[in-house]
Amino acid sequence: METAQRVIRRSGLFSRLLFVLWCLALLLLIYSLVRQNLPGGATRSWPWRLQLLDLQSAVAAVLATGGASLAREQYARTVKPLIGYFGRVTTEHGPHGQLAWVCHLFNGGQESAVMTDVSYWITYTDAGRDSGAADSSAWLTHSAAVASIEKSGLVNRVDFALTASGAGHPLSAQTPRYMGWFTEKAMREVDNVFVRVRVLDRVGDAHERVINLLKSANRSPSHPDPPLL
To answer: Does the first or last residue of the chain, that is N or C, have fewer Cβ atoms within 10 Å of its Cβ?
Structure first.
């Protein structure tokens, strides 16, 4: 289920339009080359009698549109978000200082991005299924994900918590985003919590990353992890 980050949609205005213009300029260049190398009399017949661009202008158009496309792709790489996550055992979120596995989402890129969708897919241990929970069969909203976990007998904000994140929330390039926490009791019932995060970057490209909040989780914590440097 967990996947590497991928681009799910390119900006139509800043990506596809430039490519279409480059293709059009290339066709005009080919037309101009063919027309220039035809015998003199052939240029009097249709469609060769029509001179759209001279050869120099056609070459300039190809170079300009091709250069713009390359510049756009380079800039898109510069502002591309790099979505990652990490988890730690702390006493800062669980009730009454209880040890809990806490997960954060972060953007390792240079620029901020805007979230467009956050969805959840949850699977349970045998103990969780015996308690009445069922594995997800489709991506869930935040409220549906919380309700699904509660069916196993766990209590929201006592045994676990999922941060409500949705469309319009920024994913800063400087500050990790808190995603939720799980106590040892919750991790005995819940096997995996997959989160599908979709963001929009500065050039209008949409990116998707699926992470697992309980990947490498310490399910039987005995002490908190050392603070981050």
So the answer is: C
